User: Fold this.
Amino acid sequence: MSTQEESLKKFQQRIDADEKIEPRDWMPENYRKTLIRQISQHAHSEVIGMQPEGNWVLRAPSLRAKKILLAKIQDEGGHGLYLYSAAETFGVSRAEMIQQLQEGKAKYSSIFNYPTLTWADMGAIGWLVDGAAIVNQTMLAKCSYGPYARAMLRICKEEGFHQRQGYEIMGKMMNGTPAQREMAQDAMNRFWWPSLMMFGPPDTESAHSAESMNWKIKVESNDKLRQRFIDRTVEQAHHIGLTVPDKDLKFNKETMHWEFGPINWDEFWTVVKGNGPCNHQRMNHHIHYHNEGAWVREAASAYERKISAN
Ligand code: BYC
Assistant:
């Protein structure tokens, strides 16, 4: 057996024994590459994900609502920071990762390419988008790579608040006037299917799943997590009087799961390839404010040089 094969075998034994892999440990090149891709894309999603909500800060219906929304958006920025730091443990710099995003070489979650048209969308994002993110990230907290798994623990706790604040907005609107109920249902109709797409393509078409599951980067499949999210969320929707916009939705008493209709995967790939409703807007906004903030990064670096020279 060659040294490479020997190392690979030992690595797999560590994975199978549920040991955490740490930055200085030996790892296959593809394990490293997959994690840089996934963690950096995850970080970009958090940061780009601040934009749809940022759209409503100045129009929040009360001071309470504004304070909560601001705190939530700030949390997303923090999640981006933990995740960029986790990816940096592989020796890749934040500047490189951001360059890849801005050049279209790195992705971010498809969900953030949809517009936020009404205040109810803040409810739908918190409840559905953060709700889907929790299901995915609770799984990622068991990831074999230590720094990523640990970042997930705190992120999941914060997402728990986000999900509840979104559900509170939806619940309040469903208890409000007919116009408010209609607004909440409209947000549900627009965000339901894109939220299901957050879990990625079906298992049969997921390019990375087999290898990522073998290395416990992902410990549960895209379809399994999607089903878990649906099972949880349908009950919550019904509880506050919302209709799930899926005529094929039905509860299977034998499997104890909600069966759902076909997902529009053409729409998903259109959005992922950069042609969703807001892809250009999101990227232009990111580039504009990244460039505008260059002086802050330069000042911070100058200060760091000054301190380390003394
Ligand atoms: N959107 O082989 P697959 C938040 C890509 S933010 C775009 O299944 P994998 C929040 C995939 O990258 C948290 N692209 O991939 C923030 C791959 O293309 P590449 C968001 C997607 O990686 C603010 C190709 O499709 N959560 O909560 O094994 C406000 C084939 O897919 C998507 C994360 O970022 C998608 N939805 O599994 C509110 C989760 N799905 O890279 C809330 C972290 C797939 O080969 N990521 N693609 O060009 C993951 O867990 C995994 O990457 C996925 C996909 C489950 C998403």
Summary: Residues 37-38, 41-42, 45-46, 49, 76, 107, 109-110, 125, 129-130, 133, 136, 140, 197-201, 206-209, 212, 218, 222, 272 surround benzoyl coenzyme A (CB under 6 Å). The CA atoms of residues 14 and 41 lie 26 Å apart. The longest helix spans residues 146-174. The chain has a mean pLDDT of 97.
